[in-house]
Every structure is written in C-alpha cells, then in structure tokens.
Amino acid sequence: MLEGGGFEVTDLGVSVPPERFVTAAQEKGAQIIGLSALLTTTLPAMKTAIETFKTVGLRDKVKVMIGGAPVTQGYADSIGADGYADNAAASVDLARRLVSVGKD
After folding, report:
1. What is the average per-residue pLDDT within 4-17?
2. pLDDT for the residue 103
3. Per the CB 3.0–4.6 Å rule, which of 2, 30, 79, 96 could disulfide with 25?
C-alpha cells in the first residue's frame, strides 16, 4: 500500500534487530520507519527499536509509525511512536502526514 501511495519501501523482513533498523535508516536516508507486530509478545521490540534510535541520536530525524493486530493508539502513545494506523490504507495517510510535518 505504501509503494502504491508513492513511497519507496525497504522491507527488512521479520524479527529484525533494532540496530538493523538504524543501519537501514542511515543507509537509505529514511524519513519514516514502519514497525508491525503480529503477536503481543513482539510488542516490546517496538519500544526497544524506538529507544535504540534515541540512543544513537537519530530519533529526531526519523518518524516511527506502528501497526499490527495487537497494536493500539494507546500503546503507540506509551512507547513514543509518532503515529499508529489500524489498517494498510490508513498507514498511507499517516505516512503522508508524517512526512509533511515541518514542511509548512
């Protein structure tokens, strides 16, 4: 859906270590990182990824959007994500809003 919405997408796959997100973001000059969880047991990895971006000093340069079956807006807020989408179409709208922030 994001590609159809005009975004360049790099899929890093499943069970990706947070450091790999950082490396990919740096290599690609990413504006947005998208994280998805299928099971509640994988939710803590989202928080860890956001914390890793903070640790390396990139958190203010990359927006983080999250989604997936067990994810809620409340969880997104609690871990400091920039946005949450509950379906693929909504993620395109969210990504467009995130990249337009600060361009006015």
Report:
1. 95
2. 58
3. 30
Entry pTM: 0.91
- The predicted model gives 26-48 an average pLDDT of 95
Q: Say which amino acid occupies 10.
A: T
Q: Is the dihedral of CA 64, 11, 6, 84 positive or negative?
A: negative
Amino acid at 60: D
Residues 6+ positions from 8 with CB-CB distance below 8 Å: 28
State percent of the chain over pLDDT 90: 96
Q: Secondary structure of the chain in the HEC alphabet?
A: CCCCCCCCCCCCCCCCCHHHHHHHHHHHCCCEEEEECCCHHHHHHHHHHHHHHHHCCCCCCCEEEEECCCCCHHHHHHHCCCEECCCHHHHHHHHHHHHHCCCC
